Structure prediction request, 916 residues.
Amino acid sequence: MQRNGGGGVAGGQPWVLRRIRLTWLSFMLFFILVFFPLIATYYLTTIDEAVGPDKRLFGPRPGGELCEAKHVQDLCRIRESVSEELLQLEAKRQELNGEIARLNLRIEACKRSIDSAKQDLLQLKNVISQTEHSYKELMAQNQPKLSLPVRLLPDKDDPPLPPPKSPRACRLRSCFDYARCPLTSGFPVYVYDRGAYAWAERIDPLVRQAFEAAVKTNIYVTADPSVACLYLVLVGELQENASPPPPPPAELEKQLKALPYWRADGRNHLLLHLSRQSVTQNFLYNVSTGRAAVAQATFLERQYREGFDLVVSPLVHALSEPNFLEIPPQVPVKRKYLFTFQGERLESLRSSLQEAPPQSFEEEIERDPPADYDDRIIGTLKAVADSRLDQVLVEFTCKAPRASLPTEWALCGERDERLGVLKVSTFALVIVPGDGQLVASAGCGMRLFEALEAGAIPVVLGDHSQAAVHQHIRWSEAAIVVPKPRITELHFLLRSLSDSDLLNMRRQGRFLWEAYFSTAESVLSTVLASVRTSLQVPAAPIREEHAREIPHKAGKLAGTDANLADNGDLDLGPVETEPPYASPRFLRNFTYTASDVYRAWNRAPGPFHLFPHTPLDPVLPSEAKFLGSGTGFRPIGGGTGGSGKEFQAALGGNVPREQFTVVMLTYEREEVLMNSLERLNGLPYLNKVVVVWNSPKPPSDDLLWPDIGLPIVVVHTEKNSLNNRFLPWDAVETEAILSIDDDAHLRHDEIMFGFRVWREARDRIVGFPGRFHAWDLNHQSWLYNSNYSCELSMVLTGAAFFHKYYAYLYSYVMPMAIRDMVDEYINCEDIAMNFLVSHITRKPPIKVTSRWTFRCPGCPQALSHDDSHFHERHKCINFFVKVYGYMPLLYTQFRVDSVLFKTRLPHDKTKCFKFI
Ligand SMILES: *[C@@H]1O[C@H](CO)[C@@H](O)[C@H](O)[C@H]1NC(C)=O
Ligand SMILES: *[C@@H]1O[C@H](CO)[C@@H](O)[C@H](O)[C@H]1NC(C)=O
Ligand SMILES: *[C@@H]1O[C@H](CO)[C@@H](O)[C@H](O)[C@H]1NC(C)=O
Prediction:
């Protein structure tokens, strides 16, 4: 309990008693020192006068003859003894003075040790309550473990389930064998190879090639049919003008039944028909597929089983990747034409199509004469064009119409010509076929996706058709659906929409197109994800980057110097008392396919990955943590609140306790790095330090790393790349990452405050150095700016907190072109991260506190100061804008300080932090 060993309460006497004695002593001393000399002087002066002016006692040393007189001798003796006594008293006085000083020192020491004992007591109480807390939590979690039923693999000769009365009645619940797809099975998919069925050879080679390439890279595909949940058969599309026509329905059925895992009824099979052409093949129309589901771009109402069959998008980019840089920018909102439409009704082609095989399909359409509004539509749109109120482009005949269904509006011209028109259209009209039998058609799908690709907002005229993956994608966020009877109000409606709404739709359309429909891989992933989501099976967990450790020698005792930490004399949190605590992972596996389906599908990055944690998890209401859901919470003052002292003792806030990981990128600056690491000693809530060793040269052998009482993981990298800073290393076990440059100098209280702020804004970048993007009026482009400014839009990742979620997105989801640019310039990775987070969240970053010394004085200059560095950053910004299609960064005008910063407090209260 007692910090200063010798300075305690000696002799067991209370210090109050000692003080009284001291006062008495001082009084005595005063008496002796002041009065005694006065009296003595008076006495001696009297003697002097008696012996006359020549024989003064207090003159020069008295002569021998003077002492001959007896009484004078007496006086001399007295004088000697008195002066001796005076000398003794003087010595005594000095001794006592020394004693007083010593005692004063002891008093001070006692006071200090009382204070520190009080502090220790507080901390001990804290530890005890923390331990109690953890113990209670452990007990609470000690519920009996619930596990899934044992997985039984169905036999090949399972008795077939009784089939539904009509094949049209198939739904997942009645036709799908859930037993093959337990929630934790991971959704294995078996894909039949082309040797398994005869008509595979007639499939368009480009479609087949694209499909096979996509299958190769898909992580759900398994080679073991006995464990598969889903069996995938590519059925089309067949080659154009296939010389033997598609097999007749009976023959197709026979071939399907012969598939090795068909098991009499085709349960858990998905027949996938990918169309590359606008001409619609629908040879499965009259084929009984049993319990197998069908995924294709064209469906008649009679054949479509809602919730079971799947509408897919046409395969536009079969093998090539779309070039994102050729996509027109999303701004300005208003383009040359308000809306455009080009198409032709192919009455002339009707007879030739009728001869083509699946005849019954065509007949089906014929039998139901379309009661459509097309004439009225044509009339109204032409009137709008003639009125010249707005520039519009509507053409109802074209030079080279593409083949299509008879009731459908055929596409005109070549793809490039069509895209050329769409790029200058604000809206693109999609008139769905007049006949109500058609639930979805490849032609309409093509129009829709070409519009999305070119950034023209689709306006779908007719509300009875289904767009691709409509079970999960909310199309109303990207396209406007107008019932045909509203055609006369269409112009008014389109004119009334605000720019911000239009840009939102355009951005959402771009996201949908890019994530789900832009390549063969994304189309296949989308089909599988849609089935998987319907079955509530979670996605495969996203990849972590394995951290290959470089062994290193620790041992240099890190400084315990208080100045090093510079806390402003505050305990910022538990240091020795809190063991390492990794953030819990994968708590919401089944949420994304249950209550969170909408967000998973309609917000970036889409439903394709399972993340261990995201910054978007919902927050409990405050009372829940006191009424049964308190696991992990550390409320301030146990829930009663408080200022500085209580605040420093608990994390508080709205989310459970956690720690953070420091990720430090370094390149051949060992001395600087060692100093930076040493400064982290004693930092509360720090879980681990990951040093990304960005140099091919390993650390020097004789380098002694500081021992800061925490693991320092030094990670080997394949190449020197700034992107390594954001790799989602498996060694990072917390949600919070503090990314710092090896030469950044942050004080502990700044880091602590940043961490606490980040906990309340988990989806943002929270950090220290702010920058902004400024518009260059001369060149009509963006400039990077680091001048003082009251508005900022970026926080540099040389010293910032962000969620590990964004490390996954940066490394695996963000367009590759951006990472390539970072590598090319060896610059801009922090700008790229700010773009990414603002793009996903549509929120600016948060800057915390002002007092901040970024670069360490005397360190070798970082490369960030020359002109070319700035020049590159301008270029980066403008390039990234091109890739995203718009400028994602947003401005912010505030900075965050702690609650009691600059508040006058009563003396018994303390601030949250001394300086911030
Ligand atoms: C196909 O349709 C025709 C006429 O609608 C019908 O006669 C025939 O049985 C159907 N074939 C199959 C395999 O269902
Ligand atoms: C959630 O998924 C992850 C990754 O597949 C797995 O490790 C974890 O055990 C799952 N959690 C539950 C509760 O099923
Ligand atoms: C920053 O401010 C200085 C002085 O006002 C100005 O000369 C300079 O051009 C500014 N830099 C940028 C990038 O705007």
User: Anything to note?
Assistant: Residues 785, 787 surround 2-acetamido-2-deoxy-beta-D-glucopyranose (ligand 3) (CB under 6 Å). The CA atoms of residues 573 and 648 lie 5 Å apart.
